[in-house]
């Protein structure tokens, strides 16, 4: 596998009115899962459900088709999403399943693929991440990679493996966070604590490596603004464009609190403050700050981050980042403007808010 800096070169405001629409009249789009709704029971005894989703192109609420909830997914906990597929855990026995239940364009019965037993209890996990190497898990070499705890990565091929392979993180301070599969390199990338290092897992030879990140062309902003950013909570994300271009995103969220009359803190919440995007520069062997990603849109949530061409999905604003958790909104890179979307109260984002990638499978 080529290392990160020598990769193989094969190469805010109120919204519109939220009118619920039925999905059957709409083309594919990136959607945000908002809520589940039980409509009744099927003749086989399973629950009939549909999902309400947010369409960022039209800023409307969309209803999926009715589906029968597979019995294997009753009482499931969503661990992560990638390529439109979701990994769920049964709360009773901790078994894992891969499903396309949440794809609104699926017309037949939702599919469920059993995944191997982890060999440990994933319920200790606070935050899971999942990445698929293909939008079609039926492919023999499709690999599911997940972070079920902070100390190692877990990898399996659903069609080949009877158990997961676990990769221990060698350094306590370099714990894996978000995961991103690179179709260009056939490797998995992830960020590390403080965003100073990146990790790579070559899925061809299962070699885990780390490398220091180098940043160039940092933005020229006042010292006071840097100090403000230092007070923010920051997450780091790798994302690959449809053409194979790599970006590194820093997501800054600021904490606010509410005090009572005695000046005691009653509530704490956070709000998206800013983003910084860095583009891979192979000439300088590093990452260069940019405020221009052209026609691209980046989607961040509890899913594997993904990138789309805005011109392929009319209604999306190019040069923007669409985000969820906390809040739902978009960030326009050239202007630095945050726009908040506010669905009605009954349409709060799902308990595990994620964007559904508009794949064909």
TrEMBL record:
It comes from the Eukaryota. Signal peptide: none annotated. Pfam families: Beta-prop_KIB1-4 (PF03478). Residues 65-325 form the KIB1-4 beta-propeller domain. This is KIB1-4 beta-propeller domain-containing protein.
